[in-house]
Amino acid sequence: MNYRELGNTGLMISEVSFGTWAIGGAWGKTDNTEALKSLRHAIDQGVNFFDTADVYGDGHSEELLAKATKGLEDKIYIGTKFCRKGDIFSPENYSYEAVKSYCEDSLKRLNRDVIDLYQVHCPATEILKDGQVFDVLDRLKSEGKIRHYGVSVETVEEGMICLENPNVKSLQVIFNIFRQKPLEELLPEAYKRGVGVLVRLPLASGLLSGKYKADHIFEEDDHRNFNENGAAFNIGETFAGLGFKKGVELANRINWIAEGRSSMAGAALRWILDQKEITCVIPGFRNQRQVDGNLEAMNIQSFSKAELDQLELFYQKNVSDFIKGAY
């Protein structure tokens, strides 16, 4: 396993880590036995960081992490998130009392005394501009409930706002071959300021695995079934805001990235890891096979400059204009 420092926190975390949205819920059928088996397998392979949130299965993924990491609390880092249990537009949702309650509830589910990385979970832009939530997080840090804090953002603008606060230690962003905009300004600025970058949806909700055909139908409780047009939450969280059929079409046009590499998914993760500003990717998983498939990215051949240029041009000419919603 390769490790990278999370910004300037001193925490060295696995460059391939894992998100736990899929094992918590909203990605179709879940299997607790398989989820725990997969978490423990990832830990055995050297993975030492997991991302979760209080709304993933209404706290279920936090509870699974508590079971999987019992006795390893000083070796396995956990980043969890808050705010989406309430009204993300209301300042009251970010008051000291509200955030402390969210934090203590997560601590109970995680069965931990302190949260390694506490992240604001895609709040309203105006909340970030106001900045009061950062004062609240500073207070929780001084009380020893959290070690560090960061923000999961939807747009480059939001990320740039967060970077103005010197105590924000990480940004969680949507970044992949179909979402290259952060490369222009956000990632260089975060790197300059010593802020870690966690990459969610690195495979664009599975599009960049290359395994889907345009007629595929997702399970009813899978957000890829009901949020393709942003009906439930930000449209960018599903298929990178491209829509499923358009995404499949575009993925088929870049399946060449798998040539000389173990898989298209592994190659897509390798492309992200080749960017020096990135701390880690946090793909989802539902079974041990997917864990192993994602871990393969560490040993895959890096992209040449010519390949990187080709993918950048492809994004500019064929992808960026089709992304829906602000990003």
Automatic annotation (TrEMBL):
Residues 16-312 form the NADP-dependent oxidoreductase domain. Pfam families: Aldo_ket_red (PF00248). Coiled coil: none annotated. It comes from the Bacteria. PANTHER family: D-THREO-ALDOSE 1-DEHYDROGENASE, NADP-DEPENDENT OXIDOREDUCTASE DOMAIN-CONTAINING PROTEIN. This is Aldo/keto reductase.
